């Protein structure tokens, strides 16, 4: 039995419905293990005995958009960036929409203000989706529409 591959380009439009985020450009980076989201003003807090984080997600590069978000905290991880520096980052798990596919993805929260793309989609996010990345192409999947948080 052959699994059908979903072809994506080097850049794709994505949404994070649990965070209320739609219309975010992501760079597909198979050289990065974990995915990253540009976030600032990160505050850890407790809700119903569980650790959460509240943060500002920065969504645009040409038109700057900010969105205040909250998500359960999965972990804190030491991440070595491409410049060789290690930093401790908060990790959240939230649903990602790419084309017609929706699945949970771990994201580290980090300042990416000097980066062109506010989100990196790393290789771990692509493992179970039978994805094939064509780096010569961009925006091969349909742009996600507005979704209701918590909907399947």
UniProtKB/TrEMBL annotation:
- Record domain Retropepsin-like aspartic endopeptidase: where: 7-144
Please give one Pfam family short name.
Zn_protease
**Protein name per UniProt:** Retropepsin-like aspartic endopeptidase domain-containing protein
Whose protein is this, by species?
Answer: Azomonas agilis
